UniProtKB/TrEMBL annotation:
Keywords: Membrane, Transmembrane, Transmembrane helix. It holds the Pfam family HIG_1_N. Residues 1-65 form the HIG1 domain. This is HIG1 domain-containing protein. The chain crosses the membrane at residues 6-29, 41-61. The keyword Cytoplasm does not apply. InterPro entries: Hypoxia_induced_domain. It comes from Roseisalinus antarcticus.
Amino acid sequence: MASDPLFIVVALAVLGVAAILLMGIGNFGKGGDPKTSNKLMKWRIGAQFVAVILILLFVLIRRGG
């Protein structure tokens, strides 16, 4: 499964969401600019949407549907 190109894309998308989330939490935790935290969380929502669509596509293709 790790050699499947779509799986690699899904894994990268999930890692991207995690990275954006950690950056937003880190900025919020150190008392950074609230606008930056808000911007990062908006980016996270968009990236998470893309990741969920890719996961659903992966599952659909793997099931043969």
